[in-house]
Structure of Diaminopimelate epimerase:
Amino acid sequence: MDSVFGELTGVPFLKGHGTGNDFVVVVDPEGRLLLSDDTVRLACDRHQGIGGDGFIRVIRSANLPEGQELLEHTPDAEWFMDYRNGDGSIAEMCGNGVRVFVHVLVGQGLVDLAHGETVRIGTRAGVKTVARTADGYAVDMGPWGFIDGDGARSRGSDAVVTAKGLRVPRPAVSITMGNPHTVVALAEGEKLDALQLHAAPQVRPTPPDGTNVEFVVPIDEEGQGSEEIGRIRMRVHERGVGETQSCGTGACAAAAATRFWAGESAPDEWVVEVPGGAVSATFVEGPHGAEHVVLAGPATVVASGTFG
Ligand SMILES: N[C@@H](CCC[C@H](N)C(=O)O)C(=O)O
């Protein structure tokens, strides 16, 4: 019988997730695969493929044209996360994906990484340093920043979001984590639960490269919040996917926006609860005075197989 998976026919894959954000992973160190959008879409299809929010190719930086450029500046990034959304589109960065990526490198014996050690990973949003922790991985996601309607960095809120289940359009801030995010604050958990995110939220002005949209509510019931750790609940509609159980870059953007809204006394450490679990986002001083976000959370491989 003919295979529908084209260039992936006979290729081994792994299936993994980080807090329910799930990925089809293919290890292709030499970069032999010519991946088409259609093949990626089919691999990620939940009915006719393996199923995943995204598709990750593990490739040596030297074997991907963009990776070679990156190696000139950062020769220590041996491995590159070639990331695609479930619809086949390329994305700059994936926070949950990069933890799964490193977990696969370790599991396949491609990298030795004891607890506390770090590895540098190339991505389309630059090189990320990933540390192995007791219960997963912590990623220095680099600096975050505001984006204005034209895609340039600026300060302030700039967008309006309409979504199914939202009674009136809400103001939002646009934030870059290397990929674009639009964060909307809601007052209560009930409003978050009422959202119907099977339909894509509308963002105005239209972001030039599309956007991931995060809806957040603070968790400040007595006994749950503390002055040292901020807590929020988040749902997300991902660009190129739809609603997902979690989004690592989205959690960082949501924490950055909430911390900005909360003012100067806001904590640096945030727990972000998502439908698939929880991750943490911690704001630290990075090199050259820029503020970086460190995303921490679990990574799991659940299955392996071969494309038929
Ligand atoms: N789920 C990811 C983000 C994946 C890319 C995103 N859909 C985009 O197009 O920017 C994460 O964990 O960060």
